[in-house]
């Protein structure tokens, strides 16, 4: 799930522990800056420094680059740094924001490489579960879990995209990470594909209330008029299990560890933002104009 609301400082520091990795650097920089400002000495201090230089032994290779602080000096530095951070607590949020932006940029670059390396498996797998135009010019991919609340919320936007754009193709990648019931529901959906009913089964499962498992998924399949004997036999087939395993392996390679997660060309939309349809539609239109080598 994505959110535009920035967490409170306390929440940021307790939930996002990685921020603390930056604190020593912040403290060091602040301390050095303040120490640098404090390095302007009085004439008396300069005289004392000069006298110390005369009486001190020559610096050796081992000591030339080393600055040793006395306990009192260390305490003063600590007090300066502490005072600076207390007086400017917003620096923690500045660090958090900068770190998040840097990590998002790095992740986006890694994702582009991963998509290019796995484009065939992502967009053109022959066994893929598809909605919309099977020969569509632009493909949208969704990694999802049938028990994921945000996947359920995003269904309306996916249906709207399919119904409003006759040239779009949507590929679904099963990622049942929430429960055993999620995996069982995925098996039912893939088995329904063998009867040409995947899209209908997919919508029924994501529209259902409550937790999904094999029993609830089979009841929905029966309401859709599927051949139940064939469905149960196909659920247990090696092909169905292999497809789920393949999708899970692909998600791992792509660094996808949450649902839903959408891919459009070399772009990603994690979670189910309020404007999901708008983002998907705009990405599809842009890629249609620019061209997409593999989607």
Annotated CATH topology of the largest domain: Glutaredoxin
Could you give the count of β-strands? Answer: 5
Number of helices: 13
Percent in helix = 55-70%
Summarize the structure.
It is built from 13 helices and five strands. It is of the alpha+beta class and 295 residues long. The two termini are 25 Å apart.
Report on the structure:
By secondary structure, this protein is α+β, with helices and mostly antiparallel strands. It folds into 2 domains: 9-114, no CATH class; 118-290, 3-Layer(aba) Sandwich (Glutaredoxin). The chain has 13 helices and 5 strands. A 5-stranded mixed β-sheet has the order 1-3-2-4-5, with helices on both faces. Helix 2 (23-37) packs across helix 4, helix 7 packs across helix 13 and helix 8 (180-193) packs across helix 11 (228-235). The two termini are 25 Å apart. Mean pLDDT is 82; it is low at 1-25, 32-56 and 58-64.
Give the helices and strands, then pairings.
Layout: H1 9-15, H2 23-37, H3 43-55, H4 71-87, H5 90-117, H6 119-123, E1 129-132, E2 138-144, H7 149-164, E3 168-174, H8 180-193, H9 198-207, H10 214-223, H11 228-235, H12 238-254, E4 261-264, E5 267-270, H13 276-290
Parallel strand pairs: 2-3
Antiparallel strand pairs: 1-3, 2-4, 4-5
Give keywords:
single chain; 295 residues; alpha+beta; Glutaredoxin; 5-stranded mixed beta sheet; 13 helices; 9% strand
């Amino acid at each position: 799930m994505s959110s535009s609301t920035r967490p409170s400082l306390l929440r940021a520091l307790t939930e996002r522990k990685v921020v603390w990795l930056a604190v020593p650097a912040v403290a060091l920089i602040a301390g050095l800056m303040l120490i640098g400002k404090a390095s302007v000495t009085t004439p008396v201090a300069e005289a004392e420094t000069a006298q110390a230089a005369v009486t001190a032994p020559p610096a050796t290779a081992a000591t030339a680059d080393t600055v040793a602080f006395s306990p009192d000096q260390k305490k003063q530095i600590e007090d300066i740094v502490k005072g600076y951070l207390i007086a400017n607590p917003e620096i923690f949020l500045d660090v958090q924001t900068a770190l998040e932006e840097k990590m998002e940029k790095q992740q986006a670059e890694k994702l582009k490489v991963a998509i290019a390396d796995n484009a065939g498996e992502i967009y053109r797998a022959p066994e893929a579960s598809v909605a919309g135009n099977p020969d569509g010019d632009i493909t949208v991919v969704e990694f999802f879990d049938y028990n994921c609340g945000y996947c359920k919320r995003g269904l309306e936007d996916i249906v709207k995209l399919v119904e409003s754009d006759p040239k779009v193709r949507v590929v679904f990648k099963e990622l049942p990470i929430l429960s055993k019931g999620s995996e069982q529901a995925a098996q039912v959906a893939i088995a329904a594909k063998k009867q040409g009913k995947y899209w209908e089964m997919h919508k029924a499962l994501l529209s259902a209330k409550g937790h999904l498992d094999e029993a609830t998924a089979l009841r929905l399949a029966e309401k859709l008029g599927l051949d139940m004997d064939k469905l149960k036999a196909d659920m247990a087939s090696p092909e169905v299990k292999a497809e789920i395993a393949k999708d899970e392996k692909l998600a791992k390679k792509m660094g996808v560890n949450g649902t839903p997660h959408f891919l459009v060309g070399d772009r990603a939309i994690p979670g189910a933002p309020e404007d999901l349809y708008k983002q998907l539609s705009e990405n599809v239109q842009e890629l249609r104009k620019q061209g997409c080598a593999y989607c």
